[in-house]
Design goal:
Two copies of one chain form a homodimer.
Chain A (H helix, E strand, L loop, with lengths): L1 E6 L6 H9 L1 H4 L1 E7 L2 H8 L5 E5 L5 H9 L3 E4 L6 H11 L3 E3 L5 H4 L2 H7 L2 E3 L8 H15 L3 E13 L16 H6 L4 E6 L2 E6 H4 L4 E4 L5 E6 L6 H4 L7 E8 L3 H11 L16 H6 L10 H8 L6 H10 L14 H12 L8 E13 L2 E12 L7 H18 L7 E3 L4 H12 L6 E6 L2
Parallel strand pairs in A: 1-2, 1-4, 2-3, 4-5, 5-6, 6-15, 7-12
Antiparallel strand pairs in A: 7-13, 8-9, 10-11, 11-12, 13-14, 14-16
Chain lengths: 445, 445
């Protein structure tokens, strides 16, 4: 029996744990799920004969050492900032490790040590980062092998509510970490177009969207991700003139969200005075001029002309930002108050299903021709456990773990899934779960 | 002979050093100016029989200890972050200390130690903070002594070029730390009006100005300072319903500056790619949409509607932001590039004189009457050495040092000049230098 250790039993681990348990007897695996909350771990294992649950606390040095020592491979689903603690133990104990998180500079600095220990630390094996890399590299490598030269790469991803359950004016629900949604884009966003670097400050980010039809799912809009430039290096496209990454929402989302950004409701750097006794209406009013004889609704429309658009205003009103209802949060930042409201209003109902949408757009020249390839994927969740997010994060990790256990991944060190011997079998098996990319070729005018 | 040690020989120390040297033989003082650059210190002392220059490096623990040990009082004009190092030595050696800088939490934490050592650490003894506190407390105390109840306190300060030398379309020149001008207001600004807390995010700050006529100097505009709320505690006005502090500029400045804020040119959190080879025109273009067939000037006016105002556009053009001239700064942030340009264009010419303007507006009720008191001050620099900034920072410090040496300040611990026995004699002597407040009383409708 080979021992696989999964650290963390959060919501996004369902598909991963089920995938490994489903293949456990076939490959002779024993799956241990470790979490600081043993009950949560046990619930995930659900009495499977090849499974076990343990308490795992990365801050308990001795005990976490002992748990990792018993494993043949470790998958860390812990919060991202804990990965380097796990990685250091895996290196010392020579245990291969996998995560769905970004290879931060801190992690990358462990590359040499991992190579010396003779183990791979496979990072960015989820959805975004993860499936984005694999599906992009597949097309990039094919174009380059055919002698094509890439001139532009745009890539968009979004987690949304599936259209059948899309029943609010924002066409959006929280299918993922709410804090990340509130803080999205905070900072500067950088991309390249035709060799020109472009920068968008946060307060203009939601002004500058693009629209796209994707597959048969109708229209979407895209806003820019924080740093598109670093992907030039990831994909070996250092000299590509255009590089852009964005987040997908339904049309109209950004224009309404922009009102919150412009007002300052998404700021997280200071605490509001007496937030405890504030109503949502007073919260909004705190960012508007002092004009006690003018209703908050009117002041907002005068302050942000976007808010005067009836489609935008309807969204704002529906959220309850004008309600005389107490927030009830002590020492809260604006972002925390907004998040509390969104968690109520954008909550997924029990029957709701989520959807992941991803689209890559490659422009390239081959011979004298300008061509474009569009590669797109959409997948809906099955239920509240097997969400599209859990599947797209968990299956690539599960499949890579299998490949590793079967000796099919030979890389050592800190590795991304940009290598053909990783992405090809992972993408092939993802298809069997309905995660498949549809490619279209266009000749350009 | 009593020894006075002045640490730091920067531009703002001229009036302070001259004040103390001018009074040195009268009171039997010996003035030592210490700077990391001994030459700079010597230049300030200028061969005065009661003066001496020494090398002073706060990081040279032994030597700085020895220098402070010889003094009877220490005035720190070093960069603000160094004050606590000086303060700790002054406490250990039981030497009174004075500065023109904010009493940070780090400094305030030394209060008990200073009390035990039996010395005062007199902070915030410059212009702003400094003269603002003293001139405000004088009126506040008078109103309260008469039985008045303050309902509103607005206070504005600005450093500008004197009207006679005001010859550029911004009506502004750099009379003070250029970096502070570029970063002004970055973050959130907080104030209170009629019991309502108000917050302005940075990207809206320069939208929301007020205008004022001040003394005989014509019209000014005011934008909000970062944190007006903390002054409630400083002035003992915890329950005042309205509290606002702002910065004074000439009308039209904010609307044009706003274009830079909106574009993102004042951001200092990231480095621009290849900034070294960028022209100012390309710098601006990096924040605008990719539309190579549209000139930067037009794109800017489409992106920021304020920029389309001909008065604003004239200011932008005059600064040279559209010039095809290389920036020549390696690994620069947007704010650093903008600062470089401003340092060229907003430079004070050798004959130019600066001006400081300050206005306080107090509203209060007394009996059944609503009243208002406006207290305003303006002073112009004499020359490039005795600037209005150097005088308004240096004289209060110099006068307070004299009072201390004469035994007229009995306070111990970390002290602000909000006490009558400090502000009254300081304000009285400031008048002899032309720094005087003109007060007007109004009956309110």
């Amino acid at each position: 029996m080979k021992n696989i250790l999964i650290l963390g039993a959060g919501l996004s681990t369902n598909s991963l744990i089920n995938y490994l348990l489903d293949h456990a007897s076939e490959y002779g695996w024993h799956i241990t799920v470790g979490d600081i909350n043993e009950k949560a771990a046990r619930r995930k294992v659900n009495g499977h004969p090849n499974g076990a649950a343990v308490i795992f606390d990365i801050n308990d040095d001795m005990e976490s050492w002992r748990t990792i020592a018993k494993a043949d491979v470790v998958i860390s689903m812990l919060p991202a900032f804990m990965h380097h603690l796990v990685a250091n133990k895996c290196i010392d104990l020579r245990k291969p490790m996998l995560t769905a998180s970004y290879a931060t500079d801190e992690l990358k600095a462990l590359n040499e040590k991992a190579v010396k220990a003779g183990i791979p630390i496979l990072m960015e094996l989820g959805l975004d980062p993860g499936i984005d890399h694999m599906s992009a590299m597949k097309v990039i490598n094919r174009i380059q092998n055919e002698g094509g030269k890439l001139t532009s790469f745009y890539s968009f991803t979004g987690g949304l509510v599936a259209p059948e359950y899309d029943n609010n004016p924002w066409n959006y629900k929280l299918t993922w970490n709410p804090r990340n949604v509130v803080m999205a884009g905070n900072g500067v966003s950088k991309f390249m177009r035709n060799g020109r670097y472009k920068y968008i400050p946060y307060h203009r980010l939601f002004d500058r969207t693009m629209t796209r039809k994707i597959l048969n799912y109708g229209e979407f809009e895209v806003y820019t991700n924080r740093d598109s430039l670093k992907y030039r290096e990831v994909y070996g496209l250092k000299d590509i003139p255009s590089m852009y990454r964005g987040t997908i929402r339904r049309p109209g989302f950004s224009k309404a969200w922009n009102v919150f950004v412009r007002l300052g409701l998404t700021e997280d750097t200071y605490i509001l005075e007496d937030s405890e006794n504030m109503t949502y209406r007073q919260f909004v009013n705190a960012f508007l001029k002092y004009e006690p004889q003018v209703p908050v609704e009117i002041k907002l429309q005068e302050y942000c002309r976007h808010a005067a658009d009836p489609v935008v205003f309807e969204k704002l009103k529906w959220l309850g930002i004008f309600d005389d209802r107490k927030v009830g949060l002590k020492n809260a930042t604006p972002a925390q108050i907004l998040q509390k409201l969104l968690e109520e209003k954008w909550k997924m109902d029990p029957q709701d299903k989520d959807m992941i949408i991803m689209q890559h757009e490659f422009k390239y020249t081959i011979g004298n021709e300008d061509k474009m390839t569009v590669s797109a994927m959409a997948i809906k969740g099955k239920n509240q456990e097997e969400t599209a997010m859990a599947m797209t994060v968990g299956f690539p990790l599960g499949i890579a773990t299998k490949l590793l256990m079967l000796g099919k991944i030979k890389h050592k060190g800190v590795i991304l899934p940009i290598h053909k011997d990783i992405y090809q079998p992972v993408l092939a098996e993802l298809k069997t779960f309905g995660i498949s990319f549809e490619e279209k070729e266009y000749m350009m005018g």
